[in-house]
Amino acid sequence: MAALEPGPGRTRPTRSETRRRILDAAFTVFGERGIAASKLTEVAAAAGLTKGAVYSSFASKDELVLALMEEHAAHRLEASLAGFAEAGDGGVGLGCVAAVLMHEMRTDAVWHRLLAEFFALAHHDEHRRDALKLRRREVRTTIARALERLAEGFDLELPLPPREFAVILLALSNGLAVESDIDDEAVPDDLLGRVLTLIAGEAVAKVRSAAESITEQ
């Protein structure tokens, strides 16, 4: 399939726009077919690009998968946790913080299935294991920094070092997402929030109280 040519008066997509199209297409293709059963030609077709265009942004299917999962884990959580800083006096951003901490980290089962599949594929492949380890370290670092900003913004002390708390958040959200995907009735919407309250106590209670006060206004 030939890459889409820009029409009259239109310019070719930028490198970042091309990357975005590839990631969006990869999510659709991998989510529908699974990682192992998918080909980069299918991702390219879904993105309206050539296979060469995909390879110009990602050296391999593994790199594309890792980039996709890293973007999801880091961007969504960090953006929400960091939102309070942009809200200033605790407006919409604070509501985003509470929403992520209490409800949103397990809602998209596709991402967790992709992580589980890639983890299984990496079990017998040292190169994949090392690549996954490196990307997950980067994700945990991003989340840990967001947690540090959260603690500073609310003037509270985290119950664990930020890097360890990041591991807990990832493990809980991934595990609950898997259980929910198996049996959605087994995981109440507020379960993650209740578990975090047991772990973080005052810290989570403070975030929840602030979010509830905003909702009531």
TrEMBL record:
Keywords in alphabetical order: DNA-binding, Repressor, Transcription, Transcription regulation
InterPro entries, alphabetized: BetI_C (IPR039538), Homeodomain-like_sf (IPR009057), HTH-type_TetR-like_transc_reg (IPR050109), HTH_TetR (IPR001647), Tet_transcr_reg_TetR-rel_C_sf (IPR036271)
DNA-binding region per UniProt: 39-58
Pfam families according to UniProt: TetR_C_6, TetR_N
Superkingdom classification of source: Bacteria
Residue ranges of every copy of the HTH tetR-type domain listed in the record: 16-76
Listed GO MF terms: DNA-binding transcription factor activity; transcription cis-regulatory region binding
Identification of the protein by name: DNA-binding transcriptional regulator, AcrR family
